[in-house]
Design a protein that fits this description.
single chain, 356 residues, alpha/beta, Rossmann fold, six-stranded mixed beta sheet, 13 helices, 6 strands, 49% helix, globular, binds guanosine-5'-triphosphate, binds magnesium ion, GTP-bd, GTP binding, P-loop_NTPase, Sigma_54_int_dom_ATP-bd_1, G domain-containing protein
Protein backbone atom coordinates (compact mmCIF):
# COMPACT_ATOMS: atom_id res chain seq x y z
CA UNK A 1 0.00 0.00 0.00
CA UNK A 2 1.54 3.29 -1.03
CA UNK A 3 0.99 6.28 1.23
CA UNK A 4 -0.63 9.25 -0.47
CA UNK A 5 0.06 12.79 0.70
CA UNK A 6 -3.36 14.42 0.80
CA UNK A 7 -1.99 17.33 2.90
CA UNK A 8 -4.13 16.27 5.82
CA UNK A 9 -2.39 16.32 9.23
CA UNK A 10 -1.59 12.70 10.07
CA UNK A 11 0.09 12.91 13.46
CA UNK A 12 -2.82 11.24 15.30
CA UNK A 13 -2.44 7.50 15.87
CA UNK A 14 -5.35 5.20 15.20
CA UNK A 15 -6.74 2.61 17.61
CA UNK A 16 -9.57 0.30 16.57
CA UNK A 17 -12.17 -0.56 19.20
CA UNK A 18 -14.01 -3.80 18.42
CA UNK A 19 -16.43 -6.09 20.22
CA UNK A 20 -19.94 -7.43 20.23
CA UNK A 21 -22.98 -5.20 20.43
CA UNK A 22 -23.41 -4.03 24.02
CA UNK A 23 -19.84 -5.00 25.01
CA UNK A 24 -19.28 -1.35 26.00
CA UNK A 25 -17.18 0.06 23.14
CA UNK A 26 -18.86 3.47 23.12
CA UNK A 27 -18.96 3.57 26.92
CA UNK A 28 -15.20 2.90 27.04
CA UNK A 29 -14.50 5.63 24.45
CA UNK A 30 -16.78 8.08 26.27
CA UNK A 31 -14.85 7.51 29.51
CA UNK A 32 -11.55 7.89 27.71
CA UNK A 33 -12.43 11.05 25.82
CA UNK A 34 -14.79 12.60 28.41
CA UNK A 35 -16.88 13.47 25.38
CA UNK A 36 -20.61 13.37 26.07
CA UNK A 37 -21.31 13.27 22.31
CA UNK A 38 -20.26 9.61 22.22
CA UNK A 39 -23.62 7.84 22.23
CA UNK A 40 -23.95 4.93 24.63
CA UNK A 41 -26.78 2.37 24.34
CA UNK A 42 -29.66 2.21 26.80
CA UNK A 43 -31.85 -0.56 25.39
CA UNK A 44 -30.92 -4.10 24.41
CA UNK A 45 -30.72 -3.27 20.75
CA UNK A 46 -27.54 -2.05 19.15
CA UNK A 47 -26.67 1.61 19.53
CA UNK A 48 -23.74 2.62 17.31
CA UNK A 49 -25.07 2.50 13.76
CA UNK A 50 -21.82 3.17 11.94
CA UNK A 51 -18.13 3.45 12.71
CA UNK A 52 -17.03 6.83 14.01
CA UNK A 53 -13.67 8.35 14.95
CA UNK A 54 -13.17 10.06 18.31
CA UNK A 55 -10.13 12.12 19.27
CA UNK A 56 -8.35 11.70 22.60
CA UNK A 57 -5.16 13.09 24.08
CA UNK A 58 -3.39 10.43 26.14
CA UNK A 59 -0.26 11.75 27.81
CA UNK A 60 0.44 14.10 24.91
CA UNK A 61 -0.21 11.51 22.18
CA UNK A 62 -3.15 12.28 19.92
CA UNK A 63 -5.29 9.21 19.36
CA UNK A 64 -8.05 8.61 16.87
CA UNK A 65 -10.24 5.92 18.40
CA UNK A 66 -12.54 4.16 15.98
CA UNK A 67 -15.83 3.15 17.54
CA UNK A 68 -17.42 0.38 15.50
CA UNK A 69 -20.92 -1.08 15.43
CA UNK A 70 -20.86 -4.47 17.15
CA UNK A 71 -21.28 -7.87 15.58
CA UNK A 72 -24.56 -9.67 16.27
CA UNK A 73 -26.10 -6.34 15.53
CA UNK A 74 -29.86 -6.19 15.28
CA UNK A 75 -29.58 -3.87 12.27
CA UNK A 76 -26.36 -4.58 10.41
CA UNK A 77 -24.81 -7.73 8.95
CA UNK A 78 -21.35 -9.16 9.69
CA UNK A 79 -20.37 -7.98 6.19
CA UNK A 80 -21.41 -4.38 6.88
CA UNK A 81 -19.40 -4.28 10.09
CA UNK A 82 -16.29 -5.87 8.68
CA UNK A 83 -16.37 -3.66 5.57
CA UNK A 84 -16.54 -0.55 7.75
CA UNK A 85 -13.54 -1.82 9.71
CA UNK A 86 -11.72 -2.40 6.40
CA UNK A 87 -12.63 1.11 5.26
CA UNK A 88 -11.15 2.74 8.37
CA UNK A 89 -7.99 0.62 8.02
CA UNK A 90 -7.70 1.55 4.39
CA UNK A 91 -8.10 5.26 5.23
CA UNK A 92 -5.38 5.06 7.90
CA UNK A 93 -2.94 3.18 5.65
CA UNK A 94 -3.58 5.46 2.65
CA UNK A 95 -2.91 8.56 4.73
CA UNK A 96 0.16 6.99 6.36
CA UNK A 97 -1.22 7.43 9.86
CA UNK A 98 0.14 5.08 12.48
CA UNK A 99 -2.00 2.25 13.79
CA UNK A 100 -1.19 1.43 17.42
CA UNK A 101 -3.39 -1.60 17.78
CA UNK A 102 -6.79 -3.02 18.54
CA UNK A 103 -8.82 -2.97 21.74
CA UNK A 104 -11.24 -5.89 21.75
CA UNK A 105 -13.98 -5.63 24.39
CA UNK A 106 -15.91 -8.55 25.83
CA UNK A 107 -18.87 -8.27 28.22
CA UNK A 108 -18.01 -10.51 31.19
CA UNK A 109 -21.68 -10.78 32.20
CA UNK A 110 -22.56 -12.71 29.00
CA UNK A 111 -22.97 -16.31 30.17
CA UNK A 112 -22.17 -18.22 26.98
CA UNK A 113 -20.08 -17.92 23.84
CA UNK A 114 -22.78 -17.35 21.24
CA UNK A 115 -22.11 -18.22 17.61
CA UNK A 116 -21.71 -14.51 16.82
CA UNK A 117 -19.00 -14.15 19.49
CA UNK A 118 -17.05 -17.06 18.02
CA UNK A 119 -17.43 -15.66 14.49
CA UNK A 120 -16.30 -12.28 15.71
CA UNK A 121 -13.19 -13.72 17.36
CA UNK A 122 -12.30 -15.60 14.22
CA UNK A 123 -12.70 -12.43 12.16
CA UNK A 124 -10.50 -10.58 14.64
CA UNK A 125 -7.77 -13.20 14.13
CA UNK A 126 -8.03 -12.93 10.35
CA UNK A 127 -8.09 -9.13 10.30
CA UNK A 128 -5.10 -8.84 12.62
CA UNK A 129 -2.89 -11.81 11.65
CA UNK A 130 -0.88 -13.85 14.22
CA UNK A 131 2.23 -11.71 13.72
CA UNK A 132 0.34 -8.74 15.22
CA UNK A 133 -1.39 -10.37 18.20
CA UNK A 134 0.92 -8.45 20.55
CA UNK A 135 -0.84 -5.28 19.44
CA UNK A 136 -4.23 -6.57 20.63
CA UNK A 137 -5.66 -5.81 24.07
CA UNK A 138 -8.39 -8.22 25.18
CA UNK A 139 -10.53 -6.29 27.64
CA UNK A 140 -13.40 -7.61 29.74
CA UNK A 141 -16.08 -5.09 30.75
CA UNK A 142 -18.98 -4.71 33.21
CA UNK A 143 -17.29 -6.01 36.36
CA UNK A 144 -19.48 -3.71 38.49
CA UNK A 145 -21.58 -6.36 40.31
CA UNK A 146 -19.31 -7.28 43.26
CA UNK A 147 -21.54 -10.17 44.37
CA UNK A 148 -20.78 -12.00 41.12
CA UNK A 149 -17.05 -11.36 41.08
CA UNK A 150 -16.18 -15.04 41.56
CA UNK A 151 -18.48 -16.13 38.72
CA UNK A 152 -16.93 -13.50 36.44
CA UNK A 153 -13.41 -14.51 37.41
CA UNK A 154 -14.22 -18.10 36.55
CA UNK A 155 -15.62 -16.95 33.21
CA UNK A 156 -12.52 -14.89 32.47
CA UNK A 157 -10.43 -17.99 33.19
CA UNK A 158 -12.56 -20.02 30.72
CA UNK A 159 -12.19 -17.32 28.09
CA UNK A 160 -8.41 -17.27 28.46
CA UNK A 161 -8.17 -21.07 28.44
CA UNK A 162 -10.65 -21.94 25.71
CA UNK A 163 -11.05 -18.99 23.39
CA UNK A 164 -8.20 -16.51 23.75
CA UNK A 165 -5.31 -18.87 24.29
CA UNK A 166 -3.78 -18.54 20.81
CA UNK A 167 -4.16 -14.76 20.86
CA UNK A 168 -2.45 -14.58 24.26
CA UNK A 169 0.32 -16.95 23.22
CA UNK A 170 0.86 -14.61 20.28
CA UNK A 171 1.31 -11.71 22.71
CA UNK A 172 -2.20 -10.28 23.23
CA UNK A 173 -2.64 -8.96 26.79
CA UNK A 174 -5.79 -9.27 28.94
CA UNK A 175 -7.18 -6.43 31.02
CA UNK A 176 -10.25 -5.68 33.08
CA UNK A 177 -12.08 -2.42 32.51
CA UNK A 178 -13.39 -1.25 35.87
CA UNK A 179 -15.76 1.31 34.36
CA UNK A 180 -13.87 4.53 35.21
CA UNK A 181 -11.95 7.06 33.09
CA UNK A 182 -8.77 6.14 34.98
CA UNK A 183 -9.24 2.46 34.21
CA UNK A 184 -9.84 3.24 30.49
CA UNK A 185 -6.68 5.39 30.39
CA UNK A 186 -4.62 2.73 32.17
CA UNK A 187 -5.72 0.17 29.56
CA UNK A 188 -4.93 2.39 26.58
CA UNK A 189 -1.52 3.13 28.12
CA UNK A 190 -0.72 -0.58 27.66
CA UNK A 191 -0.65 -0.11 23.89
CA UNK A 192 2.76 0.26 22.37
CA UNK A 193 2.78 3.99 21.53
CA UNK A 194 5.70 3.52 19.17
CA UNK A 195 4.06 0.78 17.12
CA UNK A 196 3.11 1.17 13.50
CA UNK A 197 1.15 -1.99 12.89
CA UNK A 198 0.24 -3.28 9.45
CA UNK A 199 -2.55 -5.80 9.86
CA UNK A 200 -2.94 -8.97 7.79
CA UNK A 201 -6.06 -7.54 6.14
CA UNK A 202 -4.24 -4.34 5.15
CA UNK A 203 -1.51 -6.36 3.45
CA UNK A 204 -4.15 -8.32 1.58
CA UNK A 205 -6.08 -5.24 0.48
CA UNK A 206 -3.05 -3.40 -0.85
CA UNK A 207 -2.84 -3.94 -4.59
CA UNK A 208 -6.54 -3.55 -5.33
CA UNK A 209 -7.66 -6.92 -3.99
CA UNK A 210 -11.41 -7.39 -3.80
CA UNK A 211 -12.61 -7.81 -0.25
CA UNK A 212 -14.14 -11.21 -1.03
CA UNK A 213 -10.65 -12.53 -1.86
CA UNK A 214 -9.28 -11.72 1.58
CA UNK A 215 -9.19 -14.32 4.38
CA UNK A 216 -11.85 -12.49 6.39
CA UNK A 217 -14.06 -12.03 3.31
CA UNK A 218 -13.82 -15.74 2.53
CA UNK A 219 -14.55 -16.61 6.14
CA UNK A 220 -17.72 -14.46 6.13
CA UNK A 221 -18.88 -16.30 2.99
CA UNK A 222 -18.12 -19.70 4.53
CA UNK A 223 -20.05 -18.81 7.71
CA UNK A 224 -23.06 -18.05 5.55
CA UNK A 225 -22.88 -21.33 3.63
CA UNK A 226 -22.34 -23.27 6.87
CA UNK A 227 -25.41 -21.75 8.50
CA UNK A 228 -27.46 -22.29 5.33
CA UNK A 229 -26.37 -25.94 5.41
CA UNK A 230 -27.27 -26.29 9.11
CA UNK A 231 -30.67 -24.80 8.44
CA UNK A 232 -31.30 -27.26 5.60
CA UNK A 233 -30.28 -30.20 7.85
CA UNK A 234 -32.51 -28.94 10.65
CA UNK A 235 -35.52 -28.77 8.40
CA UNK A 236 -34.84 -32.36 7.25
CA UNK A 237 -34.45 -33.48 10.91
CA UNK A 238 -37.64 -31.77 11.90
CA UNK A 239 -39.51 -33.49 9.02
CA UNK A 240 -38.09 -36.93 9.94
CA UNK A 241 -38.82 -36.34 13.61
CA UNK A 242 -42.51 -35.70 12.98
CA UNK A 243 -42.71 -39.08 11.29
CA UNK A 244 -40.80 -41.15 13.88
CA UNK A 245 -41.16 -39.84 17.47
CA UNK A 246 -43.95 -39.47 20.01
CA UNK A 247 -45.96 -36.27 20.06
CA UNK A 248 -44.46 -34.95 23.40
CA UNK A 249 -40.85 -35.54 22.40
CA UNK A 250 -41.59 -34.12 19.01
CA UNK A 251 -43.07 -30.87 20.32
CA UNK A 252 -40.15 -30.25 22.78
CA UNK A 253 -37.62 -30.88 20.05
CA UNK A 254 -39.41 -28.81 17.47
CA UNK A 255 -39.64 -25.86 19.88
CA UNK A 256 -35.82 -25.94 20.38
CA UNK A 257 -35.34 -26.38 16.67
CA UNK A 258 -37.61 -23.51 15.76
CA UNK A 259 -35.82 -21.16 18.20
CA UNK A 260 -32.45 -21.90 16.72
CA UNK A 261 -33.97 -21.92 13.22
CA UNK A 262 -35.21 -18.36 13.77
CA UNK A 263 -31.71 -17.20 14.79
CA UNK A 264 -30.19 -18.80 11.73
CA UNK A 265 -32.89 -17.41 9.42
CA UNK A 266 -32.30 -13.94 10.84
CA UNK A 267 -28.57 -14.29 10.24
CA UNK A 268 -29.16 -15.39 6.64
CA UNK A 269 -31.61 -12.55 6.07
CA UNK A 270 -29.21 -9.91 7.42
CA UNK A 271 -26.28 -11.24 5.40
CA UNK A 272 -28.25 -11.84 2.17
CA UNK A 273 -26.42 -9.07 0.24
CA UNK A 274 -23.00 -9.59 1.84
CA UNK A 275 -21.46 -11.49 -1.07
CA UNK A 276 -22.43 -8.63 -3.40
CA UNK A 277 -21.09 -6.00 -1.01
CA UNK A 278 -17.82 -7.84 -0.53
CA UNK A 279 -17.11 -7.80 -4.25
CA UNK A 280 -15.48 -4.40 -3.76
CA UNK A 281 -11.94 -3.07 -4.03
CA UNK A 282 -12.14 -1.18 -0.78
CA UNK A 283 -8.74 0.57 -1.10
CA UNK A 284 -9.73 2.08 -4.47
CA UNK A 285 -13.11 3.06 -3.13
CA UNK A 286 -11.66 4.71 -0.03
CA UNK A 287 -9.25 6.84 -2.11
CA UNK A 288 -12.22 8.12 -4.04
CA UNK A 289 -14.09 8.93 -0.84
CA UNK A 290 -11.08 10.74 0.65
CA UNK A 291 -10.95 12.98 -2.43
CA UNK A 292 -14.67 13.66 -2.15
CA UNK A 293 -14.34 14.40 1.57
CA UNK A 294 -11.56 16.93 0.92
CA UNK A 295 -13.49 18.61 -1.89
CA UNK A 296 -16.68 18.85 0.19
CA UNK A 297 -14.86 20.28 3.21
CA UNK A 298 -13.05 22.84 1.05
CA UNK A 299 -16.34 23.95 -0.49
CA UNK A 300 -17.88 24.31 2.95
CA UNK A 301 -15.04 25.84 4.99
CA UNK A 302 -12.37 26.79 2.40
CA UNK A 303 -10.01 24.53 4.37
CA UNK A 304 -8.80 20.96 4.25
CA UNK A 305 -10.43 18.64 6.81
CA UNK A 306 -8.60 17.32 9.86
CA UNK A 307 -7.85 13.59 9.82
CA UNK A 308 -10.80 13.01 12.19
CA UNK A 309 -13.23 14.95 9.98
CA UNK A 310 -12.00 13.27 6.82
CA UNK A 311 -12.23 9.85 8.48
CA UNK A 312 -15.74 10.63 9.72
CA UNK A 313 -16.81 11.67 6.24
CA UNK A 314 -15.28 8.54 4.66
CA UNK A 315 -16.97 6.30 7.21
CA UNK A 316 -20.32 8.00 6.60
CA UNK A 317 -19.86 7.42 2.86
CA UNK A 318 -18.89 3.80 3.51
CA UNK A 319 -22.00 3.19 5.57
CA UNK A 320 -24.44 4.76 3.12
CA UNK A 321 -22.71 3.06 0.19
CA UNK A 322 -23.24 -0.40 1.66
CA UNK A 323 -26.76 0.48 2.82
CA UNK A 324 -27.65 1.40 -0.75
CA UNK A 325 -27.07 -2.18 -1.92
CA UNK A 326 -30.14 -3.83 -3.36
CA UNK A 327 -30.36 -6.89 -5.56
CA UNK A 328 -28.68 -6.23 -8.88
CA UNK A 329 -25.21 -5.19 -10.01
CA UNK A 330 -22.97 -3.55 -7.41
CA UNK A 331 -22.97 0.26 -7.81
CA UNK A 332 -19.25 0.55 -7.03
CA UNK A 333 -18.29 -0.47 -10.57
CA UNK A 334 -19.20 2.90 -12.03
CA UNK A 335 -17.45 4.95 -9.32
CA UNK A 336 -14.22 2.94 -9.30
CA UNK A 337 -13.76 3.58 -13.01
CA UNK A 338 -13.62 7.33 -12.30
CA UNK A 339 -10.76 6.82 -9.82
CA UNK A 340 -7.63 8.73 -10.83
CA UNK A 341 -4.22 7.25 -9.97
CA UNK A 342 -2.24 8.72 -7.08
CA UNK A 343 0.19 11.55 -7.91
CA UNK A 344 3.54 10.26 -9.22
CA UNK A 345 5.64 11.80 -6.44
CA UNK A 346 3.51 10.12 -3.77
CA UNK A 347 4.20 6.64 -5.07
CA UNK A 348 7.03 4.35 -3.89
CA UNK A 349 6.95 5.73 -0.35
CA UNK A 350 7.44 2.61 1.75
CA UNK A 351 4.74 1.78 4.24
CA UNK A 352 6.81 1.22 7.39
CA UNK A 353 6.00 -2.09 9.06
CA UNK A 354 7.24 -1.54 12.59
CA UNK A 355 9.11 1.28 14.30
CA UNK A 356 10.34 -0.78 17.26
N1 LIG B 1 -21.54 -1.24 34.57
C1 LIG B 1 -21.00 -1.13 33.36
N2 LIG B 1 -21.83 -0.84 32.33
C2 LIG B 1 -21.29 -0.73 31.13
C3 LIG B 1 -19.89 -0.92 30.91
N3 LIG B 1 -19.65 -0.77 29.60
C4 LIG B 1 -20.84 -0.51 29.04
N4 LIG B 1 -21.83 -0.48 29.96
C5 LIG B 1 -23.27 -0.27 29.68
O1 LIG B 1 -23.63 -1.20 28.66
C6 LIG B 1 -24.55 -0.62 27.74
C7 LIG B 1 -24.02 -0.77 26.32
O2 LIG B 1 -22.81 -0.02 26.19
P1 LIG B 1 -22.33 0.60 24.80
O3 LIG B 1 -21.05 1.29 25.09
O4 LIG B 1 -23.38 1.38 24.13
O5 LIG B 1 -22.06 -0.74 23.98
P2 LIG B 1 -21.42 -0.86 22.50
O6 LIG B 1 -20.41 -1.93 22.55
O7 LIG B 1 -20.99 0.47 22.02
O8 LIG B 1 -22.67 -1.38 21.67
P3 LIG B 1 -23.03 -1.12 20.10
O9 LIG B 1 -22.89 0.32 19.83
O10 LIG B 1 -24.45 -1.58 20.00
O11 LIG B 1 -22.13 -1.99 19.30
C8 LIG B 1 -24.74 0.82 28.18
O12 LIG B 1 -25.95 0.91 28.90
C9 LIG B 1 -23.55 1.11 29.07
O13 LIG B 1 -23.85 2.08 30.06
C10 LIG B 1 -19.05 -1.22 32.04
O14 LIG B 1 -17.84 -1.44 31.94
N5 LIG B 1 -19.68 -1.31 33.22
MG1 LIG C 1 -21.56 1.66 20.52
Amino acid sequence: MEVVDWHIPTDACMVLVLGETGAGKSFFIRKLTSNSEVKVGHALESCTQRSQPWEADIGGTQLLLIDTPGFDDTVRSDGDVVLEIASSLSFQATLGMRLLGIIYLHDITVPRMRGSLKRELEMLRLIVGPENYRNVLLVTTKWGDKSRRREYENRQFQLEENYWEDLMLGGAACHRFEGSADSAKAIVAQLNFRANVVLALQKELAGSTSFNQTAVGRYAEQSRSKIQHELDSMSTMSRDDTMTTSRTTSSALSSTLSQSTTEKEEFLRSTALDSQKMDVKIDDQVRLWIKEAIREEKERTKQKPSAARAMNSVLAKTSSFFKSFKSGPAPYQSTVSSYTPVPQQAQNIPYVAELE
